[in-house]
Amino acid sequence: MPLSEFADKLNEIMPVLMREFARMQPAEVYKDKITLPQILILQHLNSQDPVKMTDIANFMKVTTAAATGIINRLVKSGYVLRVLNDQDRRVIKVKITPKGLLLMKKLALDRRKKVIHLFSKVSEQDRRDYLRILTRIKDTISGE
């Protein structure tokens, strides 16, 4: 299959996959209207807690002002809190709250169940190949 045809097919499939995976999110995501950028930040904080606002902006590849807007909504929902530095008031760190940790745990467990269900219909070899290809794509994108 030529690369251009592959790109066309992928462009047809990806929006459907993204939409269907979005529909599988637990009720908390819809109840609190949590966006994908907010989920990505919560996942980042879950492994890097606490994090400076500038580091969050760099991680998301957005301005500090844009990151502040995202964090404001997460603070309002109770998923994160701001931690001030007594020595330098300009430095603000963000820390995930127990409510945020609980949501991340629920999302991970829910996602795991859905992946197991979806991929139970796929052969072990195809799962290995899929994971190998996704890993290669992730490594390529991360290296850019």
- The CATH superfamily name of the largest domain is Winged helix-like DNA-binding domain superfamily/Winged helix DNA-binding domain
Across the major sheet, the strand order is 1-3-2
Q: What is the radius of gyration computed over CA atoms, rounded to a whole number of angstroms? A: 18 Å
**By helix and strand content, what is the structural category?**
mainly alpha
Strand content: 5-15%
Gross morphology is globular
* Number of individual domains: 2
Structure description:
The protein has 144 residues and is mainly alpha-helical. The protein is globular, with a radius of gyration of 18 Å. A 3-stranded antiparallel β-sheet has the order 1-3-2. The protein contains 7 helices and 3 strands, in the order H-H-H-E-H-H-E-E-H-H. Helix 4 (53-60) crosses helix 5. The longest helix is centred in the C-terminal third of the chain and has 22 residues, at 98-119. It has helices at 3-23, 27-31, 36-48, 53-60, 64-77, 98-119, 124-143; strands at 51-52, 80-84, 92-96. The relative contact order is 0.10. It has 2 domains: 1-31; 36-105, Winged helix-like DNA-binding domain superfamily/Winged helix DNA-binding domain (Arc Repressor Mutant, subunit A, Orthogonal Bundle). Strand 2 (80-84) and strand 3 (92-96) form a beta hairpin.
